[in-house]
Amino acid sequence: MDGIFLSRLQSGISLMVHFVFPGLTLGMALFILIAESVFLKTGRALYRDISAMTVRILALVFAFGVATGLVLPFAFGTNWAEFSKATGPLFGACLAVEGITAFTLEAVFIGVLLFGRNRVSRRAYWMSALLVFVGSHLSALIIIATNSWLQTPFHDPAVAALAQPVPDAVRDGFTIDAQGRYVLSDFRKVFFNPSTLIRFLHTMTASWLTGATFMLGVAAWFLARQRETDRARVMFRMASTIALVTALSQPLIGHFHIMEVLKWQGPKSPAMEGLFETRSHAPLYAAGWVDVRERKTYAIGLPGGLSLLEGGSLETRVEGLDAFPESEWPNVAVVFQAFHGMVMLGVALAALAGLAAWFAWRPRLETRTWLLRACMAAVPLPVVANECGWLAAEIGRQPWTVWKLMRTADAASAVPAGYVAFSVVVLTLVMVGLLALFVRFVPRVVAKGIH
Amino acid sequence: MPEPTGLQIYGFLLIGIAATVFAVLDGFALGIGMMLPFCRRAEDRPVMVHAIWPLWEGNQLWALIAGGALFALFPGAFAVLLSLLYPVVVLLMVALLLRPVAFEIWHHSDAAGRRPWEWAFLFTSVTITTVFGAVYGLTLSGLPFTADDRYSASLKSVLNPVPLLTAALFLSAFLMHGGAYLVARAAGAVQATGRRVLGRAWMVFAITFACWFAAVMGARQAWARPLPWVLAAASAGLLLALRRSAGRGERAPVFLSGLVIASVFPIVGVLQFPVVLANSRDFAGSITLADASPAYTLRLLAGIATVMLLIVGAFTIFVYRIFRHKVAAEEHAY
Known about the structure:
heterodimer, B: two-stranded antiparallel sheet
């Protein structure tokens, strides 16, 4: 195994472990802000209690998220030194901006949220909840903008489709100088590149759904045990409402996201759909498998569905993978499964959210054991869906690290493969250990009660 | 070597400020982490944890800011430092992974379950302090890299007196600072422990500082330059003032030890200038201010960082004022 594969493996594992936590953090920050706002307005202690419990869970999630997130930028220097040296003035600048602005808000005010309930006024406490919400979402925006630049650095789809596009200082906001350094000339262009906003919207909706599903499961746990049922019922109503709204808006947002991928990111979209051949009446697959060698997708689906969705008519010709040289394809089988896994989980979660929201307002909620059990079982599903979506986006971008500008093979450090093998083993052991610790402590923290 | 521009100097200064604030703020939290498992009275250890718990996250943040600014402003130095010191960085990553988790799991465990995590505090604090100290020293004594840096630093090139003494300097400084912080935030037995640690670490720090100063001045042949001497004299004066207040002061010691650290840190920067990362193979091949990112990136970050430093400074003071009371073993926590 070569160093580049090992470096990719290590980055993939550390990013996947980290990605469990940000979605939960953002969802909980929203939940806390809503509960604290109602408490500030009405003074009803019930909402303070719900917020207090969510803060306790947020503390756990945040600790693991910070731990696994803080080590990520190190990997750019250790494993992707060539990438860092070239893109530092641009990519590094974006990450630095995140550190100085957004993460600062979170890191300073999380302390007040956790320990300040009896030390600051109600208004100051609410302000801290707001600042943690704003900080975490701003942080997500900057990180997603930075990642989106890797996917869509160009501001003209015709240029992005060229075999060897050249960035333009005015059009794209950056150039590449004679030494291969990326020279930033317009931060706004780089930050608000063509995919930033839609990817931010898609990820935030997914994150709120993740947090809401988690709290739905927690509320169901209390209801099923007939513990603190009054508070748990309110929590169940809040969580199911957020879950329903986000789960139902996701297909629409997802559609616009797909249209963006289709327009800007060449073979990524046909790889997600498992479409090898350019054709009209292209089918929309629900589930199946891909045989890359035979160039065939065995799947059940809606005939003509993809043509209809992407062009508004069955006659629309949809570009397949055959429109691109095979050396530019990502790993189609993985991208297809990751994408469809995400979609299927999204559909299942929308159905569950609908049922939960329906029964949340009807009597005898705590006796509907089947629903409560389903809600508890659903807690990890949005996390899995997030991981799938992220895999589809990142593996779908390969073989490029920066779209059409830097191949992943040229981004890696020249460190000995033995070093990388050592760090893969050490970091994977620590990270998997942390994940196990997190899973073990969640029930303990939840069981402390809603107060 | 081309003259550095004002923007390049300002960028260098910003990284230095972030690194110094990190040492002044997180230094005491790391110092308390180092002494925690050795505190024999079980009822005293929660006091120590509660003293730093709400604040440490906002403290460690400054290391991230310094590192991020290095990545953006001097990508070459960032890439060389991290890829050449690969195994050391992996060790640092393990410590950074365990530190936030240690606080959280400690909180949710009973007395017996807490014990291993108190040792984890020791491991993470010592590792983070040592690695940051050694790296800070190495920027001065240099790493052996070539133009395409297809070379990995051997352990021997890292084990020279400057990085080792800088690591020792950091360790003793943070222990001293941690002791001083406990004097300010604790009462009774824990405060007494703080005073004892402060007194002993002061001695170690004073001796280490003298050796370290000689080593770095020798490494750069800077005996004739006035500015390092001025800073060293300021540190010595502050150290003496700290000695006088260590016995009975409440808050004065922690302010003074913070000032000592803040006056020692710039010595490296002054000796370095205009080198950012020295090359121990060929000093002329060092990474200097002239290798900074292009002017647009420097302007962008200088603007954002200047505004944010003021805002974060205000936030930090606000939060430190909320948590300025003497802590007890049973604090309100979530």
